## 1
Amino acid sequence: MEIRRPASRWAGGPALRRVAVVASTLVALTACSQPGDVAAPTDAPAEHSAPELAHVHGLGVDPADGDLYAASHFGVFRIPADGEPEQIADRSQDTMGFTIIGPDHFLGSGHPDPAETDQPPHLGLIESTDAGQTWRPLSLAGEADFHALEAAHDQVYGYDSQTRQIMVSQDKTTWDRRAQLALADFAVSPDDPDTLLATTQEGPARSADGGRTFSPIAGAPLLVLLDWPATDRLVGAAPDGTVHTSTDGGAGWTSQGQVPGQPEAITTHGTNEVYVATDSGIYRSTDIGRTFSLLQPLT
């Protein structure tokens, strides 16, 4: 893929152990600028050319129809069970943070389509209630660039790449700024709104106070991506594509299968499905990550 690859999500953190192992993965995890830069995607496909799905930032399954959606550097795409990916609304919005919170109900963040010159470079928190056909700003337009978003316990949790802070909102409008740290991804416990796990350069870290402070989890594998769909099902992806699962909230981990390439996004669906996007394709598992098959190659 010939696209911008600025410094990683973990940039700005201390030089920590195993950094060399994850350096290439960090570069692949973000297509966005660092704080202070103007970051509308300047390398969008040429005018009149067919948009291609590449550099996926987020994945989610829409409960309205069961379809998989991919948020990417070149817009949000629907991934049908058969056929080619469909770019939603012909919009090449660089959608960074992305989560599906209900039928046809998406939250996102990132940078506008280059054609939308009236938009700020950082979209803040945006919302779609028609499966990505249209988006409306909710808060922090021109300020925040969320690289990770989670909706749980009637709250929205985000990681703002501009300030490198965990932020939490109960109304999608006003925000409480919490810990400042270098992370690649985070997940919220399905049982406790105050329990968060984050992937850092030193390995997974846990917060028991709603993201205000974090402490490392001893013995956990180095991970870059997380999804926590159920009490007894926490799924993570390592820099080398190995998928790990935990049944006890991250205290203990079991290695499962491996996907080729550098992991860029992860989601789960139902009790057994795991989807992982890498720099080369989107892969699907129907056995909680033990084996994977290629669902969609990426350019």
## 2
Amino acid sequence: MGDFVKYQALGNDYLIVDPRGGSTALGTEPAPGAVRLLCDRHLGAGADGLLFGPLDAPRPGVAAALRIFNADGSECGMSGNGLRMFALYLGEHYVREWRTGTPFTVRTPGGEAEVRITDITDGRVCVDMGLARFAAGGGTDGGGAATTVVPLAGAGPDAEVTVTDLHLGVPHTVVLSDTIDGELVRRLGPALAWHPRHPEGTNVEFVRVHDDRTLDVAVWERAAGAVPASGSGACAAAAVARARGLVGSDVTVRMPGGEVEVSVAGDGRISSAGTAREVMTGVLSRSLLKELAQWGPTSDEPSGRRGT
């Protein structure tokens, strides 16, 4: 087995570092700087994030523990695409019965999620994302999806943007728009993701309602910037659109990287279904392993470079 396994879901890619295989390139406690280096697309293996797990031996009836890290080294509570990839990894490498549709649970710092591999050949996985928690705001559009008018620096149409904030394992900010393009995402994405009202950042979804069964979504993640797809972002977009009565309970979410199917049950529970696949198994060079080892478990600087 190599130092990592790389998976992708709709172009959103993660490195899986498995501590069950013995010593890892990140030790037993991934340092933020080491995660950042490993995810760097020029200096490391390159990815939108990192999945560190399983933390215990996977077995039926017991939740599989997982830690999720963003590409900037910060820890993440939940990732819809990350859960899809990790579920496939467990089915392909550990528990055979999980390959045939038996539901099992993955536990992350953001909570527990039930997952189910519905087609191991196509890499199709269903994920129960749980209930969305809508933030209070200045206006109400029904279903608890309050809106807030956010002032941004500058004049013109971007001086104020109407958003809906919610939490789905991680924070999300949804912007409904009649049109979506890359320029809009690059212009407003970072301004909203790191607005003073979100000191720890938020993931931003720009949403266009195509019809009552289809949403077009572009995502700016607080840690990775523009990404081709986001599983939890798709769920956040569907939750807001459903709460406002713009779509039905089952919706196709189209993103630059591809589509996922999202369902919002009568009790508000959100689930998504989409595909993922293994890309490669990687072996790191000795020089990179040495550089990763310089990072202490709690330091944000390599041990040999502190004070520079």
## 3
Amino acid sequence: MKLSRRLVPDVTTLQAFECAARHGSFTQAAAELNLTQSAVSRQIKDLENQLGVLLFERVRQRVILSDAGQKFLPEVRRLLNQTEELMVRAMASARADSSLSIASLPTFGSRWLVPRLPDFLRRHPGTVVNIASRSEPFDFEEQNFDLAIHYGQPVWARAICNYLCSEVIVPAASPALLSVHPVEAPADIGGAPLLHLATRPKLWAQWFEANGVEQDGAYRGNRFDQFSMVIEAATAGLGFALLPRYLIEQELTAGTLRIVLDRPMQTENSYYLAIPEGKLENPISRAFREWITEQVG
């Protein structure tokens, strides 16, 4: 890929722009960057000339972003963050035999993957693993991951999705809540407080329907955007929750959560391992695919 040097800005110039925008002052930006005020001013001027737009407007003793500057700033911050992350990852894996970058669903990563990860690393000594949370599909060309844990349908642009497992959820609650709202049948849950995963608001309605219960209040209750928060809320006694059993192994063992009824329900989607097309033959990615398939089997 051939890049035009005229269109690639200097990183230090972008740092000066971001710092001046954050402080609303070239003087304070200069102090943070250990430069003179004139040096920062010159860098901003060079960037404005390169872009052909005015990035700042002078108002009294401060500088404020122009409309063009406000549009430019988020992209500059994203680029600086990616540059820093690139350097950190390169430094972290500099002495490693191999490295593996994994994008994982947040709760899946913290509650299922990480506790099992020591086994993978024992089998592949010298491997450095980088795990980051991602809840939605992304462009592998923009975000440099070797693979991703995906819940949904086996569809991901420019990637191959390997089936891992289906998802089965069970109704669970804390012992304290069950002492106040004892449950002997699905209908008994209807009048109790319900907890919802914001990204899957129909779960309780589907569960009640699957169990032959007409329930007008299936959508009522507190909502949370991560399974991890739903689990904590259920443990705290805030309500009944529909949860994948594999995510609450610790709570079930400790007795802080109980499965209310033996009425599991398989959800409409499944878990997949998404691997970008250009990394299908990466040896460490292939090894991880074989290992995780064994773990969920």
## 4
Amino acid sequence: MTVHTQTDKRFRRSQHPTRRPRRAIRRWWRIARGVSVAVGMAFGGYQAAVLLMVASFLSVDAIVVRGLDQLSEGEVLALVAGLRGENILTVDLDLHRGRLVASPWLRDGTLRRILPSTIEVQVTERAPVALARLGERLYLVDDDGTVIDEYGPRFARFDLPIVEGLAIPGPDGRAVDRSRMALATRLLSQLSERPDVLDSISEIDVTDPYDAVVLLNDDWVLLHLGGDHFLKRLRSYAELGPTLRERVPNIDYVDLRFDQRVYVGPAGEPRGVGTQRLEQAVREPDVNE
């Protein structure tokens, strides 16, 4: 007996050849094209960067200096002379700033690029406030005790008081005690309210960091002013001076640290011997003075 069955077409091999989808081909083509464009742009960017590195119009040919008062423009330009001819895009500004602020005359400095070929240098100078006696020489110092330069004829324009007692042992003999300098700076700051009084100060001794001793122009009396109220105490001395000289004709020092009590030491006597204490009602300074 013959049995006829129907063949299931799901298991028959296709009679048509397989084809690669066009969609995959197009995708790979886009990838290849994108890679080519990226490589081309990278190469072009590299070539452009190389050209910029050697472009003459980007070489630093102008340096503008701002903020000068004490130093000359030439002195600052000498500190950053290495900038000229450098490519403005690649020059190391931090390196040249370090060379700039290495000058004791400069407290700070900044450098800024101005395309295509200019560098702007902004400086903040140190201002001398006194002449520090360090060893046998005098040095210009600023308000925090930084030694700026050795005093000499070229700095004769600075009419500054001499400060004694600042030196501390150091390898170059130019180390300054900061706490003593702080006392001198405080005194100078308070007296700056009265330029006429400040100009009358010849020397300041801060060997004792709690007692500023001053010497006035044309007056050899040592005035002990303590650590504060300097202007008030100098005014007291100006008022009491004639009376003090009547009591003690040859005065060595006057101690004004105790306000209402003034101690006067005669010259030629050991400290404390012959000292006279004067009880004075010292007038409070008028705020309008």
